[in-house]
Amino acid sequence: MPNRSILRHACLSLILLLNVVTSRAQDSTLKYNVVVVASGSTGQTPFLGHTNQNGSTPLNGNYILGRWGVSKIYNAYDPRLLKWRAGAELITSYSTKENVFFTDLFVAGKLGPLELMAGQEKQTTGLVDSTLSSGSLAISGNARPLPRIQLSIPEFYPLYFTGNFVAIKASYSDGVMGTSRLLYGNLKYEPYTYLHQKTLYLRLGFPDQRFSFYTGFNHQVIWGGENRLWPTDNMTVADAYWHAVSGKAKNFKKIGLHFGTIDLGAEWKGLNWSFLAYRQNIYETGSLYRIINFEDGLNGFRMQRSDPLPESAKYFALQAVVLEVIGTKNQVNSAPPFGLSIYQNGNYFNSFLYQSGWSYKGFGLGTPLIPQQGTTDSQLPTNPSQFTNNNRLWAFHTGISASWLGATIVFKGTYSINYGSYLTPFDQATKQLSVFISAEKKMPFWRGTSVIASLASDYGKLYPNATGLLIGLRKNGFVK
Questions:
Q1: Quick one: which of 135, 171, 242, 416 could link to 395 by a disulfide (CB 3.0–4.6 Å)?
Q2: Confidence of residue 6 (pLDDT cuts 50, 70, 90)
Q3: What is the mean pLDDT of residues 181-205?
Q4: What's the maximum distance between 2 C-alpha atoms anywhere in the chain?
Q5: How large a percentage of the chain has pLDDT more than 90?
Q6: What distances in angstroms separate CA 237 from CA 15, 248, 270, 403, one per listed residue?
Q7: What is the Cα 375 distance to its own chain's centre?
Q8: pTM for this predicted structure
């Protein structure tokens, strides 16, 4: 439990960052964002009430939470080639216990299109809608950001030698995950585990044309401890890193827990609406760099208003609609670790080596549709060696945003049919319906302040049935 000293040091860090950023505010724009909410629930926090919140929302349904953020963003009108930005967001919450931590705490510098970032910053990975989606398969923003160093081209950058027909977006990063409990060998814990990540995406289409095509991939791997786990391989840390990054096998063994997607998308930009279709194809440790399972993946479609409504509009108007179908039931694995038949089927987000699997600080790194087993119904089978007891499913997700009477309204609904995992199969298909609706209304008498309210419910057999109500205030704006 954090003590007053931790909270005092956290607040001091925010104040110091604010002072540094303010002293250089002429370089760019300084923003702040403060959110204070209170939640009450009939049980644990409903599924859509806590997912994709960067691990900030307590799973106990009754809590008080504050988000205190300040950030310096790039100035689009600054002609200088070298720019910088920074940000911090502190989470303070009280539920069954106090909790204080940073989601964002980073500094970044940009030289032309190339950016170097150090620290921890919220992120999602993959071709997907960023606000209404069920969550990207590999890195969804469901877990807390981990400390990392990242070199990237963060926005699509046109390649002039192609006549701007091809634009590129890419990243390469390494982060620290800390101590992990081991399931293999005589060692119980490995104090040094890491997450490596790289992405490469292309956009094809001339800027003045309405149609664009997207393609690319992301590759992530959790690794660490190989020099102690496989002493007979004479593997150094540098050797383990190379095999983790490249995906090459060492003595017929894949190094680390790999997961990624190969993505495709197409977008049409009309005068009033844009339309985006996207697909994420899964590959993992046994199928690295090969698409061998076309049944599993995420299929999505987004319709989004491109012509903004006038601020005075009070009538009901759709802003965006997202439809997704997600499948992970098949999990064919034609190249299992060590060639063992027990791993002939995949085991998404679980690991034969690291007990925490594809997670960080207790929350899944990937799609929240594959949950940590402590959140599922207590009547369902579990296995202490797994992160999740349910990674085989079909899910159907809808997200809608609209405006009405000056308020922003968001609805999300997810229906899933769940089969457990190959190690913990459910006795029968377990069905689950989760719904969420929220509204945010600006207060005209208090500039930059909004009232927030949301209602979330779970119905079915995967999670305990619960309904939660949240109310709060948000204040954001720019520091001049």
A1: 416
A2: very low
A3: 92
A4: 71
A5: 73
A6: 38, 15, 51, 53
A7: 18
A8: 0.89
How far is Cα 14 from Cα 300, in angstroms, rounded to an integer?
38
Give Cβ neighbours of residue 354 (< 8 Å, ≥ 6 apart): 180, 181, 182, 183, 190, 193, 222, 257
| The token pair that represents 139 in the structure block | 């890195």
Residues 6+ apart with CB under 8 A from 223: 193, 194, 196, 240, 241, 244, 255, 256, 257
CA separation for the pair 143, 51 (Å, rounded): 9
Q: Could you give the CA distance from residue 28 to residue 24 in angstroms, rounded to a whole number?
A: 8
Q: What is the DSSP code string of 105-118?
A: EEEEEEETTEEEEE
Query: DSSP letter at 139?
Result: B
With vertex at residue 9, the alpha carbon angle to CA 6 and CA 14, rounded to the nearest 5 degrees, is 125
Report the distance separating Cα 121 and Cα 111, nearest Å: 19
Q: And the tokens for 160?
A: 């002039």
Q: Residue 268 forms beta bridges with which residues?
A: 211, 275
- What domains are defined for the chain? 4-479 (2.40.160.130)
Question: Which parts of 136-188 are beta strand (E)?
Answer: 148-158, 166-181
Average pLDDT over residues 191-215: 96
Among all chains, which residue has been given the structure tokens 């204080």?
A: 100
